[in-house]
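agent> fetching stored inputs for the NDP docking request
agent> found them:
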Amino acid sequence: MQQTRSALVTGGSRGIGRAVAVRLARAGYDVGFCSRSADEAALETARLVGEAGGRAHHVVCDVTDAEAVGAFVGEVEEKLGPAYAVVNSAGVLRDKPMALMAARDWRAVVGTSLDGAFNVCRAVTRGLLTRRAGVLVNVSSVIGVYGNAGQSNYAAAKGGLNGLTRALAKEVAPYGVRVNAVAPGFIETDMLDGMTDKAREAALGKIAMGRFGSAESVAELVAFLVSDAADYITGQVVQIDGGIAL
Ligand code: NDP
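agent> prediction call returned; pasting C-alpha cells
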C-alpha cells in the first residue's frame, strides 16, 4: 500500500491550484495549500480535498512575502508531515502595453510568479535534499516561451520561472529531487474573466484544437510529473495548450 505523502500547493484556493490539490488528494496526498484570502473558495478546496480522500490544511499566505512563505511551509509540515510534492501555482495578471505599465503592475506579476516561486523553492529545498526525495512543479505559461503583446511582465515572470526550473533541476538532481514546469495555454479559470469576447475569439483562432483547456487537464499533467511514472523526467517545461501558435 502506498504511504500517504504530503503536498504543498500555492494558489490552491481556485483554478489550476485547486484542481491540482484535489487531483493530488486522489493520488493519496494530504494537501497544504495557501492563498491570500481566507474565503469561501479556500473552504471549498479544503472540502474537495477531503472528499478526494486527503487531509487539507489552508494557510493565508502571500507568496511574495518570504517570511510568510516560511511560516506556511512550517505550519503545513507540522500538521501534515514533510512535504514531498511542491506545486507553485499562485499567479496574477496585470496586462498593459509597456508604455502604460506601472512599476506596481510589473512587481505584482513578477513578484507573485517568480519571486513567489523562489520563496517557496528556497523554503522547501533544504528539507527535500536532506530527505533525498521530492518533486517540484512550477506552473508557468506558454507566454513565458512565446511572449505576448501587452504581457511583458507576465512573459518575463514565466520565462524566468522556466529558467529557474531548468537550473534548479540540475542542482538538485544528484539528490533524487526532480523539478519541472508545466506551461498551459488558455485555461478556463477566474484568470480569464477579464477577457473580452473579441480577445477570446482571437485566442481561439490560434488554438489548433479550437477550445480552451480545463484546470483538471493541467492537474492531470502535474499529477503525472509528480508521480513515480515520471521518475526520469526533470528540468522540462511541458506545454499543455491544445496546439497553440502565438
Ligand atoms: P486563478 O486566478 O483562478 O487562481 C489564482 C490563485 O492564486 C488563487 O487561489 C489566488 O488566491 C492565488 N494567489 C494569487 N496571488 C497570490 C499570492 N501573492 N500569494 C498566494 N496566493 C496567491 O488563476 P489560475 O488558476 O488560472 O492560474 C494558476 C497559475 O496558472 C498561475 O500561475 C497562472 O499564471 C498560470 N496560468 C494560467 C493560465 C490560464 O489561462 N488560466 C494559463 C497559463 C498559466 P487569492 O486571490 O486569495 O490569493
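agent> quick read of the result: The mean pLDDT is 97.
agent> awaiting further instructions
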